[in-house]
Amino acid sequence: MSATGAPLHDYEKPACAWRIQMTKTGPTKYMSHLDFIRTVERSARRAKLPFTLSAGFNPRPRMSFSPALPVGVSSCSEFVDILLKESVDVDPASERLNESFPDGMRIVSSRILPPDTPALSVIIQVASYRLDLHGKAEMCKDTVLTAVDAILARDSIEVTRVTPKGIRRVDIRPLIYEICVDTHSSPISIHAICASGSKGNVRPFDLAEVILESMRVENDSVLMDITREGLYKSCCGKLCLPW
Amino acid sequence: MEIDSGLLERILMNVEKPIRYVGGEWNATRKSHDDVDVKVLLAFPDTYEIGMSHLGLRILYHVLNKRDDVVCERTFMPWTDMYDSMMNSGIPLYALESRHCARDFDILGFSLQYELSYTNVLAMLDLAGIPMLSAKRGEDEPLVIAGGPCVYNPEPIADFMDAILIGEGEEAIEEIVDVYKDWKASHLPRLELLQRLACVPGVYVPSFYKVSYFANGKIKEIKPTNPAAPYPVKKRVVRDLNQVEYPDKLVVPLTEIVHDRAVLEVFRGCTRGCRFCQAGMVYRPVRERRPDEALELAESILKHTGYDEISLMSLSSADYSHVREVAGELLAKHNDQGVSVSLPSLRVDSFSVDLAKEVQKGRRTGLTFAPEAGTQRLRNVINKGVTYEDLIKAATSAFSEGWHSLKLYFMIGLPTETEDDLKGIVDMAKETLSCGRRELRRAGIKKAPEVTVSVSSFVPKAHTPFQWQPQMPREELLARQAYLKKHLRGKGLRLTWHDVDKSFLEAVLSRGSRRLGQVIEAAYRKGCKFCAWDSEFRFDKWMDAFESANISPGFYGNTKWECSDILPWDHISCGVSKEFLIQEAERALRGVLTPDCRFGRCSDCGVCSDLEVSPRVMSGVGKETSE
Ligand code: SF4
Fold it and tell me: Mean pLDDT across the stretch A96-103?
């Protein structure tokens, strides 16, 4: 599959894929995935990047994105592939694109890859999240530690998924690989590593709900700021950035 | 004071589409409030997605922020979930850019686009903690002003506004700001500010006019009570579109809005003279943008926004003298980057279909025609210069060019309408459909044609030849809708219609006097908000509000008024003379057409002599004819 999974008969042949790791924070964390796509497209136009266009009556810049981030979750590691007509110098191109991004979106790192690089949606399998606890939860580190231990001790954790086909129960326990608590930070933050992608997916709000439930606090007495800190592919059992 | 951002973040997690409430858009202007003399907050009384689609707001934002001594920010009506959360958690209405409370601003300017948004204006003032009634506002409160098409009858909203700008805003807003700045430095009382504002051409200060009534509700007299108050207040009009600011750094929202594309206004005004149409009267005369100027602006807009679509906007795009040239050149330059051009509001003719074909480049998105009435007789009454043949020709060429679905706009309840006219609508729709079958078959296209008929109900509007006409009673409109529902059935035909209760309320507010202020306030207190939205509209509460104020809505909605009556908006002038409107009303009944003055012959509507303007139609590149 090509980097966009796009049809074979495009009229513009890409010379390379520019893979960007970028942030989505501040106001842009409230953008839906579709909003995000549109905004990256418009930024690419403002930056005058030599993107290739899709075929059809409504040609659009050919891009592909890492798995959708829920509305309200920040990220310091989203990935975007932009298929380019010609290769670019990464530094000036990044500068131009950064200048064209709205506040909250910023390139962290980027590389030029061959145009037939496997798609992000295929290779990304793991995500790490940071959940910052504001509000009453700050009062007691022990509550948080005990709650997390209790979660890890469970054999199964069922969450509900509402899909177009109906309501499903999913066991996410096997998909949670690690949870740890940083008691030195203020506010207290919880770090979690879990499955993310087509082969199994833990949603950040699932995590939040499970943690709150385990802490036995009311949903609205605690505010959780959630940040996606990393997206990884697994190579030989190790977590690597999807370069 | 800035609002509590932590608290805001918390409530944002529990509302629909939080992106509406956070700002941060590309090209949004950030300025420190400490570095400016005047702080203006533009307030749009509907959702972010609708407000941001509105060109007037974008023009004023640009004009004001160009000045170093002014900061201009935006705020929109929060959707009901957000409104409730803000009320409950004590977050007042705030500006998207700086998150300063609305109360911190010097001037709060409302954009009034449709009458059913009036309760939202009150909701926003209430949420801002600003007294709703102008008379109750203290010396330190922001100056609350309004503008937009609704203010051609400003009376229903008059009690809530300190001042109202009648007409086009891009020049007047700067004068208003200048007056404000001088006054602020003078430390004189608020009354002095209002008096100085009343001297700015186009500004109406409602509290400087006293309205008295006869026992039957009709108006006895409208009298200025302050020497500074002009009578009538004449609308502001821009003489030459090429000489005023137009925004090229349009704010690009982070989420999809209703008109999510770049817009370039190619001309203002329309003099086709449809007798029901307020825009066709109040925006006179026609003023076109020079094609070279249009192209230059379009380039700059595309460059600064990154939009992939640009709309060449006006009240009737195919009427722009250089539409072909401008659209063609834009496409030639940008089509290979996937940029498209769109032309809203096309006429019913094959020229328009050809244009649509050229700009759509193989795409066949919807095509809409507006014959407005079903028979030639009634089309002559309303001065819609479209014939049955025009429609069939336009439809034929559309279907043969590959469109398979057309939309037709009609209005029901027009003055003098009979069953014949309704039958005419049915016939036109059916004929269009069979024309579609024929043409698609001939072109070898397998798809079945579709015709959507959209009917709205006639609403009498101020400053039109039909301003004296009643709206038909509710039962009558319902019966007419039922007739169409019964006869416009079958494969390929679709009918959409407007809620008659909403149209009725629109008619009442459109022709309302100052007395309706208390009704609007009562309706808001009963919980009416977002009345233009079907899901939120509560007719019963509005009727309660009328009853509690002891005012009969039928007097404003369903009564025929006499030409000799003093109308609630008689002190407001859009330049079109009452004599012309009376003459047009008579010609309507006789079915006599009045030609478009854009093509040469002046029909003496009064605008040009009264406001010292003239139509500006461009006859060649860089040249123009004006009389
Ligand atoms: S005064 Fe004459 S030229 Fe001017 S807008 Fe009216 S009809 Fe047209």
Answer: 98
